[in-house]
Amino acid sequence: xxxxxxxxxxxxxxxxxxxxxxxxxxxxxxxxxxxxxxxxxxxxxxxxxxxxxxx
Length: 55
Description:
Blueprint: H1 7-29
Pfam families: ATP-synt_8 (PF00895)
Subcellular location: Mitochondrion membrane
GO molecular function: proton transmembrane transporter activity
């Protein structure tokens, strides 16, 4: 059962995670977000009770 042999796949997994963590991730995180969140003012709405016909 070659799936249980971790020798080639462990190295590939470790190298891919190192590549992502050390090279790709800092490049992605250096981009500036263009849509900054803004504070919204909370508006209160007046609710009216529902006119139930049987009450």
